[in-house]
Amino acid sequence: MMFRMNLIVSVFALLGYCATAQDRFLTLTGTVTDAHTGQGIPFASIYLRTGTSGTATNTVGEFVFKYRDANVTDTLLVSSIGYRPYRQPLQAIGKDIAIALEPAAVTLAGVTVTARTGLEILKEAVEKIPQNYDTTAVQYTAFYRENVWLDDFELTQAEAVLDIYRPFKAGKDLNEQIRLVKGRKKKMDYGREAQLYYWMNGTSNGARGSLSEDLVKYCRAKYSPLNPENYRYYNYTHTETIREGDRDLLVLDVTPRRKARKGYLRMRLFLDDATLAIVKYNFALTEAGIRRVSRKDKGLLFAIMSAVVHVSTEYHTFQYTVSYSNQNNKWYLNRVTRHWEILVDSKKRNWTDRLWRADMDLVMTDLRTDNVQPFTEGDIAGSQAPMHTMIASEYDAAFWENYNVLKTEDTAVQSAAPWPATDTIAVASARAASNRQNSFSRADTLRGKLTPLRTNYDVTFYHLDVAIDLDKRSVQGRSLIRFSARQPIARMQVDLYANMAIDSIVFRHQALRYSREFNAIFIDYPETIPVGTEAEVTIYYNGVPKTPDRSIPMDGGVLWDKDSLGNMWAQVVCQGSGASLWWPNKDHQSDEPDSMKIWITVPAPYTEISNGRLQRTTPLPGNRMRYEWYVSYPINNYNVTFNIGQYAHFEDRYISDDTLTLDYYVMSYNLERGRQIFKQVHLMLKTFEKNFGKYPFKRDGFTLVESLYPMEHQSGVCIGKITPQSSTGTNRLLWHESAHEWWGNALTAKDIADMWIHEGFATYAEILVIEDRFGTEHVQEALDDQMNAVMGNEPVIGVYDVNHIHYDIGDMYSKGSLLLHTFRSVLHNDTLWVNLLRAIQQKFRYQTLTTDDLVAFINDRTRTDYTYLFDQYLRYTNLPKLAVVLKQKEEYLEVTYAWQADVKNFRMPVRVTTAPEKMGFIYPTTRPKTMVLKNMSVEEFDVDTDNFYIDVHVE
Ligand SMILES: [Zn+2]
């Protein structure tokens, strides 16, 4: 399963904060200029004295401001740092105004002699954040605009009114929510370069990105100069004090220290002298910062660009401005602008240094502080998609009348012509409370525990034979279970969801008695079946299987949809909820049949794809076709699937030392795109076979299926829908779901609590593909993304014996993968690492296992006890923290270090700077150790947090 893809949901609910119908809006347009130079003043705030709505000037000093006619008696205020504010009653102003601001007299820095250093001022400012800023949750209405160009060719122009819910806490679970009230975008004609421009036209969720530049809220962000961890990288200098209206502002310049490897920013902060509130800052990336960003952000995307669309890029400029506004003596985020420039070369096109640039602007136009509540739907903050793809763009003049927007500099944009409608994307946040704390029910135990009524038999074979009615959305048929008696059996448990009806249960031509409790069936045999007997029982059943509730992690069901041509399209996805939601079986991961027949009957025009090989199709009365699939290997229950649709099929072969058949099924209209996408399968399989060993299901072949939802269905891997965006030759979903053939399918966790064994390894497999195809230098970006994704709310391992699925499962992907990368860094020997991965596959292939089994095997193979390491990452939420104390003693640096961790005796080796520009291992324990490094300074000391996913505290 691909966790991050569960964000795509039906229809976007438009539940904006709306002006009431009787509100009439008046429009004031104008310019704000410097009274002396006549230059436009960007960033000036335009607002009403009593109101909480406002706007800002654009980069050339122009603005449009809309206010309710009820406010006509209010006073207009215009302010900008370094200028005296402007005040005028609205009634004294016409519809258009030119405002010239007088520069405020500058006080010489020498005059305000204080005993405080720049760093002391900053520390105090950070301390006073809770007093100076509203730290309760607030809601904003905001205006967002995004423009992207290649030289003067416009790639994107999109704007949106957003509702933003913003708690102040920086904890990842209490973060911003963003709801799209209305958006519009310009329809672009990309002509022959469509593929390239498609790649270049977006930046990942720019509204969310803008909010994350708020370094007051996120002062402890990893690279923030406001974070005490980074003080040693910068000089903080109080350069001058300037006057803004009736306020004195301290100007603090933040510049990297000479040898600081992590001096990523240059920054200028403006702080209110009286309160030390940070009211504005600008920052730009230094060369080191640009290198860092280009490694992180640019990495994969740009590697793909060079491979697929044949361009190379060089990061050039990154500039940001963030300002705050004051309401009732509290400060609030007001505006964030971001600008970047990248140089693009393409030999193929004869391009040198073409300028690819983007501007993103977020302006808060309305503020609400009373009784604000999180949004219950429509939150797009979790989506990585570019804003313009989230905008459904029907133009609605009446709507835009009532909202404050940022005046655009390009008059062409203001054309009243409706912007054509394009695709609507809808996103919902899936966040349901964990049941880890709320205890579990008897139903959970019945579902998740291996009781004697389950361990008394071992399933050796299933034959599922069902007909699916697409109109009624129902399933009817039988499930034959062949089993071997491990204990004498008088009674056994089989599982089928309570909403599915049982017609009869037949054993040796005899109907059996049974009872049902929640989703369990208890079958009673007329006489005890002796140990060692192989027997078959058949359950005839029918019903309408459940559909998934996307607000609950791992809630499965049948998806019923239509393809782009309006044909029916259906798929079952049941990992977590369990296969028993649609067919009777022993629904526990510990027991897999040795083989299985899957017969699915569907209406004739449709194709049906399940797992294994299609042995034959049998026409049946009523214009129906039975698809008869056979899986010749063990298969776990949740992998058993059907996909019903109007599919096109094509084949390929993967030849290494033998031949593997490749079968591809895509929607008929995606045949060409499918051919493009699946070209990468050979390289991907090569990477996987190199790292994990031979493809585990050779007899059944390797099949990829375009599907409604991506899922690792064994030898019939579902990769989700193919869209124009996925046609560019890479697809992490494809890599991820395919990697599950090794991790999850060939070996399976006995209990779903250990599902990290599936997801952690499959997620790390994505990194291995990136490493092989794009080079190690691109790995860091993907790792950084994973680091950002970790929530740390709950341990990765769930509760055993209760089929624990309702919790924050995201960490088993990201943190699971980072654990593996960290462990690989600890080994520091890729031969050993790959041999270990292959050995794990060999040892547990076609079997089920637990975390303990896996760790014991790793310990045995490496002859080292790493239990402490896996325990800390998997069973606790805290990362191990390396506490470091640095003392400079002339040219010597004294380094004292120790681990702080939940696991006693945590002792993971880690790499740090042991000499200038040189990394080496240290072997910290939970008791402090000290080393002395020659010719090293405090700024030069660094811990390899790229490759070791740990917390570091340096004093
Ligand atoms: Zn997965």
Summed over residues and divided by their number, the pLDDT gives a mean of: 86
Helical coverage, percent range: 10-25%
Distinct compounds present: zinc ion
Structural class given helices, strands, pairing? alpha+beta
**Residue ranges: pLDDT <50 for 5 or more in a row?**
2-21, 410-433
What's the tally of helices?
A: 18
Q: What value does the Rg take, in angstroms?
A: 31 Å
Strand order of the largest sheet: 10-9-8-17-16-15-14-13-12-11
Distance from N terminus to C terminus (CA atoms, Å) equals: 42 Å
Largest sheet: 10 strands, antiparallel
Number of strands: 45
Query: What is the general shape?
Result: globular
Q: How much β-strand is present in the residues?
A: 35-45%
Give the domain tally.
Answer: 5
GO molecular function: carboxypeptidase activity; metalloaminopeptidase activity; peptide binding; zinc ion binding
Organism: Dawidia soli
Protein name: Carboxypeptidase-like regulatory domain-containing protein
Domain Peptidase M1 membrane alanine aminopeptidase: 729-873
Structure overview:
With 955 residues, the protein is α+β, with helices and mostly antiparallel strands. The protein has 5 domains: 25-101, Sandwich (Immunoglobulin-like), CATH 2.60.40; 109-414, no CATH class; 442-545 and 582-591, Sandwich (Immunoglobulin-like); 748-875, Neutral Protease, domain 2 (Orthogonal Bundle), CATH 1.10.390.10; 881-954, Sandwich (Immunoglobulin-like), CATH 2.60.40. It is 19% helix and 36% strand. The chain contains 18 helices and 45 strands. The strands form 10 sheets. It has a 10-stranded antiparallel beta sheet with strand order 10-9-8-17-16-15-14-13-12-11. It has an 8-stranded mixed beta sheet with strand order 22-21-25-19-18-28-31-30. Strands 33-34-35-37-36 form a 5-stranded mixed beta sheet. Helix 13 crosses helix 15 and helix 15 runs antiparallel to helix 18. The two termini are 42 Å apart. It binds zinc ion.
